[in-house]
C-alpha cells in the first residue's frame, strides 16, 4: 500500500457553504428472485475530508466516518456533514434503461463518471444492436475508477437486469475493485449495516420482501449515520422494466430512541406521585 | 481512457504557489463575492435573486455589483465565488438549460475546484422551467428552490419555511426578496441591495435593484466640497509617459 496519501481538500473550519460536496451516504443493492433492487438515502453534504492512509492498511474512509485523534495523528480523519447542500438528491442514476448505478463519495466525481459511462454505453448499444449487459456497464465504471484512482473518490454499486444472466449486482468501491455479489452496501452509513446483512440476508427473496428489506436497511443506517438522511429512494429492475419508489422521511420505520418512550421517569414525575420509585 | 485528456489545466503552479506561501510570500488578493444567491421555480417559470455586495477580504469593494450573467436569451446564471471566474465560465451560446449545465459542469470539473465558481443556473427553455445549482468541483443538483453563497444558510431557512409549489409571480418575487434580505441582514459577506430576475416562457425581466433596504441615511446638507489648498501638498513629481516606438526593421538577410 502507498504511504501517506493526502487528498487535496479544503481546510478545517472553512465556511460550510464552500467545501467540496460529498455524498456521505448509504447505498444498498440486493438481488431477489427476479431482478435487483437498489436503494439509497438522499443527503448531499459539504464538509472536509482530510486523510492520510496508514502504511499497511487501506481504510475505506467512507465506511469509517471517523477515527478519533486518540489514535494519534497521521491516521484517517474525515469530518462529513457540516451543511446539507441537498436534502433530496437522487443518488441512483441510470446508465442504460436496464442498468442503474448507486453513487457515493465525491458528488462531482461520481456524476462525471456516470456521464462518461452512459455515453460509452450508448455507443456500445448502438454498435451491439441490443441492450448492454450489466457486466459491461460495471466494467466500464471499474475501468474509469481504477485508471484514475489517484484523482477520484467514488464508491459505486452497479445493478441491473439483462437477458443472459438476469439480475446482477456489482460493487466498485474506492480504488476500482470489481466484485460480483448477491448484495452490496456502500457509503459512510454502510458500516452500520454489515452485521444486519450478515444476520438477515437470505437468497431468493420475493420482490416485496426485498424492497422492505432495502428500506429497512437504509433507514437503520440513516438513523445512526449523521451523513445520511432525507428520504429513501429505491429502484427495482427486472425483466418487466424499471420501477422507482420514494419513501419520505415520515413514512420510514422508527427505531429505538425515536420511538415514544414507555415508563419514562419524566412522565412519572410529572404525574405528581410523591415517591417516583413506586410504580 | 484517462480523464482529463492531454492538455487542460496544469496544477504544477498550485504546488509552487503553496510552497511560496509557506515561505511568506503573500498571494495577490482577488475580488470575492461572499454572497447570497437564490433561485426558485414558480408556476410559470423561474425567479433568481442576488445581493449586490462584492468583498475583498473585509472591505466592500463594490456596493452595487451585478452578479447575474447572461448565458442565452432565457437562461441566466447567478454566480458566487471569485468574480473573474464566474465571468470566464459563463460565455456560451446555448439555448437549453441542460446544455448550459453540461458545459459549466465539464469546465469546472476539469479545474478540480480551483475555479471557484458556485452558480445558480435557471432558465425556461422549450422543455419548461429549470433550476440547477453548480458547485466549484463540478457537481450539480436539480432542485425546485436553491440557495448558494455565504448567505445560503440564512436564505435557505426562509425558503424551507415558506416555499410551496405553484407560487404566483408576485409570491415568487416576494419570497426571493425575503430570502435575499435574510442573507443581507444575517450574513457579513452579503449586503446592499436585492437584484431579481424573473424568467418565463419567452420573457425575461431583470429587476435590477428591486429592493434598496440599505439607503444612505446621512447625507451632509452642506455637501462635500474641498477648497483648493485645504490639503497640504508636500511634494510634486511628474513622470512623463513616453510613447515607445517599435520599428519593424527589415528581415534579416542570410
UniProtKB/TrEMBL annotation, chain A:
Gene3D superfamilies: Glutamine Phosphoribosylpyrophosphate, subunit 1, domain 1. GO terms for cellular component: cytoplasm; proteasome core complex. One of its GO terms (biological process) is proteolysis involved in protein catabolic process. Pfam families: Proteasome (PF00227). InterPro entries: Ntn_hydrolases_N, Proteasome_sua/b, Proteasome_suB-type. Keywords: Cytoplasm, Hydrolase, Protease. The 26S proteasome consists of a 20S proteasome core and two 19S regulatory subunits. The 20S proteasome core is composed of 28 subunits that are arranged in four stacked rings, resulting in a barrel-shaped structure. The two end rings are each formed by seven alpha subunits, and the two central rings are each formed by seven beta subunits. The catalytic chamber with the active sites is on the inside of the barrel. This is Proteasome endopeptidase complex.
UniProtKB/TrEMBL annotation, chain B:
SUPFAM superfamilies: N-terminal nucleophile aminohydrolases (Ntn hydrolases). It is found in: Cytoplasm; Nucleus. Transmembrane segments: none annotated. It comes from Eleusine coracana subsp. coracana. InterPro entries: Ntn_hydrolases_N, Proteasome_bsu_CS, Proteasome_sua/b, Proteasome_suB-type. GO terms for biological process: proteolysis involved in protein catabolic process. It catalyses: Cleavage of peptide bonds with very broad specificity. Component of the proteasome, a multicatalytic proteinase complex which is characterized by its ability to cleave peptides with Arg, Phe, Tyr, Leu, and Glu adjacent to the leaving group at neutral or slightly basic pH. The proteasome has an ATP-dependent proteolytic activity. Belongs to the peptidase T1B family. The lineage of its organism: Eukaryota, Viridiplantae, Streptophyta, Embryophyta, Tracheophyta. This is Proteasome subunit beta.
Amino acid at each position: 500500500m502507498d504511504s501517506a496519501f493526502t487528498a487535496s481538500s479544503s481546510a478545517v473550519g472553512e465556511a460550510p457553504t464552500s467545501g467540496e460536496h460529498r455524498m456521505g451516504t448509504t447505498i444498498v443493492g440486493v438481488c431477489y428472485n427476479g431482478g435487483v433492487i437498489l436503494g439509497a438515502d438522499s443527503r448531499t453534504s459539504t464538509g472536509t475530508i482530510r486523510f492520510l492512509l496508514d502504511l499497511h492498511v487501506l481504510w475505506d474512509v467512507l465506511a469509517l466516518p471517523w477515527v478519533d485523534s486518540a489514535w494519534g495523528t497521521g491516521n484517517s480523519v474525515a469530518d462529513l456533514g457540516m451543511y446539507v447542500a441537498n436534502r433530496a438528491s437522487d443518488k441512483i442514476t441510470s446508465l442504460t434503461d436496464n442498468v442503474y448505478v448507486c453513487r457515493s463519495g465525491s458528488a462531482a466525481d461520481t456524476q462525471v463518471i456516470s456521464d462518461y459511462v452512459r455515453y460509452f454505453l450508448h455507443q456500445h448499444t448502438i454498435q451491439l444492436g441490443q441492450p448492454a449487459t450489466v457486466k459491461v456497464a460495471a466494467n466500464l465504471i471499474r475501468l474509469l475508477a481504477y485508471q484514475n484512482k489517484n484523482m477520484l473518490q467514488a464508491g459505486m454499486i452497479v445493478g441491473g437486469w439483462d437477458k443472459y444472466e438476469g439480475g446482477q449486482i456489482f460493487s466498485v468501491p474506492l480504488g476500482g475493485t470489481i466484485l460480483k455479489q448477491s448484495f452490496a452496501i456502500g457509503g459512510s452509513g454502510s458500516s452500520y449495516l454489515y452485521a444486519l446483512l450478515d444476520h438477515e440476508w437470505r437468497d431468493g427473496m420475493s420482490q416485496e420482501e426485498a424492497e422492505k428489506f432495502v428500506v429497512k436497511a437504509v433507514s437503520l443506517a440513516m438513523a445512526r449515520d449523521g451523513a445520511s438522511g432525507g428520504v429513501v429512494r429505491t429502484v427495482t429492475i427486472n425483466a418487466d422494466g424499471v420501477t422507482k419508489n420514494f419513501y419520505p422521511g415520515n413514512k420510514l420505520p422508527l427505531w429505538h430512541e425515536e420511538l415514544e418512550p414507555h415508563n419514562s421517569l419524566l412522565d412519572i414525575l410529572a404525574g405528581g406521585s410523591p415517591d417516583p420509585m413506586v410504580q | 481512457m484517462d480523464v482529463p485528456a492531454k492538455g487542460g489545466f496544469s496544477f504544477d503552479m498550485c504546488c509552487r504557489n503553496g510552497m511560496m506561501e509557506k515561505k511568506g510570500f503573500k498571494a495577490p488578493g482577488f475580488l470575492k463575492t461572499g454572497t447570497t444567491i437564490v433561485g426558485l421555480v414558480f408556476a410559470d417559470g423561474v425567479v433568481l435573486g442576488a445581493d449586490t455586495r462584492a468583498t475583498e477580504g473585509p472591505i466592500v469593494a463594490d456596493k452595487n455589483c451585478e452578479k447575474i450573467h447572461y448565458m442565452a436569451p432565457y437562461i441566466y446564471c447567478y454566480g458566487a465565488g471569485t468574480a473573474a471566474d464566474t465571468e470566464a465560465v459563463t460565455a456560451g451560446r446555448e439555448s437549453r438549460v441542460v446544455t448550459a449545465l453540461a458545459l459549466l459542469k465539464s469546465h469546472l470539473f476539469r479545474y478540480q475546484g480551483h475555479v471557484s465558481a458556485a452558480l445558480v443556473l435557471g432558465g425556461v427553455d422549450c422543455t419548461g422551467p429549470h433550476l440547477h445549482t453548480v458547485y466549484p468541483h463540478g457537481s450539480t443538483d436539480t432542485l425546485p428552490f436553491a440557495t448558494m453563497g455565504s448567505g445560503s444558510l440564512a436564505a435557505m431557512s426562509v425558503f424551507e419555511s415558506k416555499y410551496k409549489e405553484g407560487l404566483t409571480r408576485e409570491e415568487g418575487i416576494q419570497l426571493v426578496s425575503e430570502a435575499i434580505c435574510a442573507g443581507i441582514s444575517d450574513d457579513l459577506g452579503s449586503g446592499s441591495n436585492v437584484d431579481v430576475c424573473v424568467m418565463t416562457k419567452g420573457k425575461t425581466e431583470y429587476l435590477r435593484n428591486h429592493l434598496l433596504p440599505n439607503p444612505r441615511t446621512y447625507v451632509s446638507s452642506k455637501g462635500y466640497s474641498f477648497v483648493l489648498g485645504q490639503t497640504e501638498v508636500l511634494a510634486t513629481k511628474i513622470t512623463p509617459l513616453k510613447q515607445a516606438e517599435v520599428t519593424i526593421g527589415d528581415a534579416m538577410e542570410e
